[in-house]
Design goal:
The protein is α+β, with helices and mostly antiparallel strands. Helix content is 23%, strand content 11%. It has a domain at 36-78.
Length: 170
């Protein structure tokens, strides 16, 4: 099972494959593994209520599902419990020793307009299903990494595209 709830195949500009499509990944009722394991975020009132009711559970394959107090500290919960992970498949980060398949300094990879639009449409659909979803964050927001590479430069444009579908993100 992948860590993300959705995956977007994304061709680089000028490439015809793979087709830009969304695939479902990890089911939304199973805690993701996309925001870093130890990152804590504030719980809102609804999340706090669900936690207090014992409805936030997790488990390991073959084991029971249970409430695990190590996932909460005060009024904060691990980010993987309260976020929906979307991965854009493609390497948009520069070449480095730790990223030998990254782009060269002369040829940065940027998401196509079609990829940006698909991120915006999917985010908007999720916001309409989960009205409390107000933010678009990126992998390096929660965990130090070069991911999402150049896509981070397009977050504002993605939010603008989402507005054209009737959604607003902070």
């Amino acid at each position: 099972m992948i860590a993300y709830s959705y995956a977007i195949n994304s061709p680089y500009p000028g490439a015809s494959t793979p087709a830009t499509v969304v695939s479902e990944g990890r089911p939304l009722d199973i805690v993701g593994s996309h925001a870093g394991t130890g990152v804590l975020v504030p719980m809102n009132r609804d999340q706090q209520r669900l936690w207090n009711q014992g409805r936030v559970v997790c488990g390991r394959e073959g084991g029971p599902f249970r409430v695990d107090p190590s996932h909460v500290s005060g009024n904060q919960i691990k980010a993987n419990f309260t976020t929906i992970g979307i991965v854009v498949i493609g390497n948009y980060s520069p070449f480095s020793r730790s990223n030998p398949n990254g782009y060269s300094a002369r040829s940065p990879r940027n998401p196509t307009r079609e990829t940006q639009d698909l991120i915006a449409r999917l985010s908007c659909q999720l916001q309409k299903k989960y009205p409390g979803m107000r933010n678009i964050k990126w992998h390096s927001y929660y965990h130090p990494t070069s991911c999402p590479g150049t896509i981070i430069n397009y977050i504002g444009q993605i939010k603008t595209l989402a507005r054209s579908y009737g959604c607003t993100f902070n």
